[in-house]
Amino acid sequence: MKIGMLFPDYGSQYVGMGKELYDLSRVMQEYFEEASTCLDKNFVKLCFASSESELALIENAYPALFLLSCSIGALLKEKGMACQEVAGYGIGQLSALNVAGSLTLPDGLYFLSKYAQFYQEQLETMQARCVCISGVPVDKVKKWCEEFRHVSIAVYHSLTECVVSGLNQEIVGIKDLALKMEAQISEVPIEAGMHSQLMTPVEQQLRVYLEKIDFHDFSCPLISSIDGTRITNGRVVREEVMKQLIIPIHWDKVMQTIADWQLVVQCGPGSSLKNTVEAFYPEKKFIAINNPDDIDELLKLIHK
Description:
single chain, 2 domains, Malonyl-Coenzyme A Acyl Carrier Protein, domain 2
């Protein structure tokens, strides 16, 4: 059975995420202890006993999601579950890199703390937002974006769904065009990233810190969120991490690449990636790991 792991992005976090697993797993507890030491942050309190607003802050959500996803991956490995491929949506790609053996926990936390700092500073200099548009061909949305200077497609979900990011006034213009086509529109947290040239100042600042991080060769391939190709070389992925900040995510291409996965496992809070998987593959088995029962179900499927 070919098993692949997906790792979620900002927006999937919630207070109490992973607590049942944490309470029963020494390996997860060790991950939390190491992370708390690395960033001098109490992750037990943050993840299990803070407020939703506090956890949602970029400086908290980014490392917390990374930590939880990585620790769940380590727990599954301890249980004997080996995956053949990994992929991550947005910052979830860093969690995928950790579980695939390319990025250490301290390096990932270090990078995300800098990313959160620089991105928050960038957001304070502009009024920007993201919206999801569905029910309209993405090629048409792309043409709409070309009519504006500071708006572009940030994420391609499918042929008829995408996320658009940009400056507020221009997003209003895009929404007006979409409504005329009777499209469905929903807000997406700007904290999830703009994946556009508006992120260039952040990307430039991060490059200095990225040079201090070692990316190792992989224990299993990473599916690129930019073009859907499989990556196993640590040198190649360094540039992949930076490109994702300033060019669109092609989650549609990731979905096409996982066609041969027989079991899809979400490592991270909630089940936010289930809908995109089911839109492409209604028949695929999907399990999100949030509590011990989920692990029991996963192991039964693997060993039956």
